[in-house]
Amino acid sequence: MQCDRPKDEIPSTRLWRAPLFLPVLSAVLLAMVAEAMAGSYMALLAVQKIGMSPLELSAFLTVPAVTGIAVTTLFGHLQDRKPVVWPLLLSLFAKVVGLGACAYIMQTWLLILGAGIFFGLSAASFALLFAVAKAKLDQLGEPAVLRGMALLRLVASLSWTIGPALGAVLIFATGYEGVYLGAASLAASALAIVTFARMRVLPSADENKAQLSGSTLLCAAPALLALAAFHTAMFMGSNAMSIVVAQDLGTQSDVGILFSLCAGLEVIVMGAFVAWPSLSSKHWLLLVGFLLFGGYFLMAIAWPTMLSLYIGQLPRAGGIGIISIVGMEMVQAMLPGRPGTASALFGNTISVGFLLSGLGTGTYADAFGYWSLFTLCAALCVFGAMVLVFHDVRTWRRDGDVARQSNRDDRK
């Protein structure tokens, strides 16, 4: 997929003319900063403050992922069929309540139950915000869509630069309560923006609306499988990194600094996609992203030190930045005219990754230790890259067969 006009003919100011783009951008920033603050310390909250066992940690991390997949799928289809704003408002409200509850709930079973309900509902906010933005940007044409979606992903990564650093300050000054109350306040600000902006969710302006047939979903399956493997490795590796750093190599503050460093580098990588929107449609970059991401885990395995982890944030950020933007564009290109469904499918690869990472972090680490998770994450990167290669080879063969059949028909 290529832009219709050269880059220098696509002024950035056009994005600001998209209806409600700035409120959506602000809501993404605040909601993701809240998620970054809380997510950086979620595993530590469960292990150090609550005292969960590895299996209890698995339940705490996986239950909200299961409910999140169901809720995101339902809300995504609803947005394509009958666009309404209340699912987004409900999702953001659940984020506020869930984060606030983490500051005070001390019982393991109650925390798991609350996470399953409120974090499951809040999981849809990411996909819904991006779907709203996609529908608005469709009115400006493909170049604006590529640049706008890349800018939203950049802002999401910028949130992970701000959030963990802010969390590190708050956990030093006020403990876990300050981190989660601060995150809840930011989520409440995002909810207020969406509420008072009076957003009207409109259908996509793309006239070539994809049909949700079995063949369409089958065609998208390899890309979704690879993205699920990537998100599993991303979350599982983050859990492992936060625990081994806090327990073996450094301090709780180092955890926040590492997350912020990686996210800051991601912003630089994603800035290239904002400057050159056509990069988003170069799907072969996904393989580069998997190689970089897998290289980070191999570094941690071969050289298990704080210095290695700090240096490793370079390939880690490159991999996350590339796969996040190009992967989302690939899914949206497979389902034109269905921003809700496409965003839900991409968002569900995140939830599936969170689900599998929760199972792996607990059960695999219980058997082999937290350091062993880096090896498993490297293997997932190899698997994701192999799935993409298989998908590309199959696509090339299919296109070649179509071209040969067309030539035979022309000769007849």
What does this structure look like?
With 412 residues, this protein is mostly helical. The chain has a single domain, classed as Growth Hormone, Chain: A (Up-down Bundle), CATH 1.20.1250. Helix content is 82%, strand content 0%. It is built from 15 helices and no strands. Helix 2 packs antiparallel against helix 7, helix 10 packs antiparallel against helix 15 and helix 12 packs antiparallel against helix 13. The chain starts with 12 loop residues before the first helix and ends with a helix. The N terminus is likely disordered.
Descriptors:
412 residues; mainly alpha; Growth Hormone, Chain: A; 0% strand
Low-confidence runs: 1-13, 400-404
CATH class: Mainly Alpha
**CATH-level-2 architecture:** Up-down Bundle
The description of the largest β-sheet is: none
Number of domains: 1
Which structural class do you get from the secondary structure elements?
A: mainly alpha
Categorize the overall geometry: globular
CATH fold descriptor: Growth Hormone, Chain: A
Proportion in helices: over 70%
Q: How many helix segments?
A: 15
Beta-strand residue percentage: under 5%
Q: Tell me the radius of gyration.
A: 21 Å
N to C succession of SSEs? HHHHHHHHHHHHHHH
Number of strands: 0
Instruction: Average the pLDDT over all residues and give the rounded result.
Output: 83
Looking at this structure, what is the CATH superfamily?
A: MFS general substrate transporter like domains
Distance between the termini: 32 Å
